[in-house]
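Entry type: protein chain
Record version: 2
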Amino acid sequence: MRFNVENTDGNARAGILETSHSKIETPAYMPCGTTGAVKGVRWSELEEIGYRLVLMNALHLYLRPGIEIVSDSGKVHGFSTWNGSILTDSGGYQFFSLKGLYKIDNSGVSFQSPYDGSKHRFSPESVVDSQVRLGLDIIMPLDHCAPGDASREKIKQAGERTVDWLGKAKNRFNEIGDETQALFGIFQGGAHFDLRNEYLEQSFKLDLPGYAMGGISVGEDREEGEAIVREITPLMPSEKPRYLMGVGLPGQILDGIQSGIDMFDCVLPTRMARNGTLFTSEGRLNLRNSRFITDDKPLDPECSCGTCKRYSRGYLSHLHKVGDPGVLGLLSVHNLAYYKKLVTDARDAIKGQNFNKWKSETESRWAEGVQ
């Protein structure tokens, strides 16, 4: 994997991330294909939009259909037929959301499958084993994600454990990893600047190809989380890709880019699309509003996605109201196209040395045109 920062504007960066499967322009948003596919969207549609990097989840692939099945079917790229790059989350956040179905100790996580109740055990080493076998481009290590409202002591315990697991993951990756693959580091620390800084410094000593800030938007005060991103991102290694995990809304992405983040992922574009909420150049559009049934305009006149080229708001509103399953994919395609254009426009603004002005104008249009 190679990464190069080509342009900067303040802390904002525009670069190129290159894996054995594709070149990705940064800032980059990764569509979430958690179980091996982006819900309701075909790979060809993602390719047409311009995506070259997607996120999948090693925990979900481990549980269904199983690492051995995927590995024997041409690994993830052959099994899924996605020809671009793939980053996999390890499942740390999913354990956070499993509630009572897991137990964490210093050597790993014991958990029950939410699908059939079967019992399993993950360690930092076994998670690397699985991801290497899957043939992934970028591997995220096992981490401990504490809730945003946890006590300082609990957040400290999770942060120290994450650093310890990262060292074990690196040792295992050095033993079995493919030279075409890259293991990123994750650091935790909640909304505590001193803890974030400490764990970042400790993980930086491991000299990994990229670093991710985890544990943001997990229940902490939103302003506190945004402050951590602003304060910590410039301290992350400047010559390596910086990844903000699980964030977020368009405004949060622009704030992250302004702070120096290069990579984002979030389920919101497709989840909100399925609920009838669309992102447009003039703010959010709630397709469930009855006034759209007679609207013959596209979702966003400035969008060139296949959905906006062909269908009107009125027709899509009708399909959503009657529960047509196909409309979920059409709406998801639009939101994903919007996110791709957002980061592409941000990149162009960085290269043109007018990112802050462009960001302010973009956010003003959202505020004025919310529907």
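Comment: Residues 43 and 82 are 6 Å apart (CA to CA).
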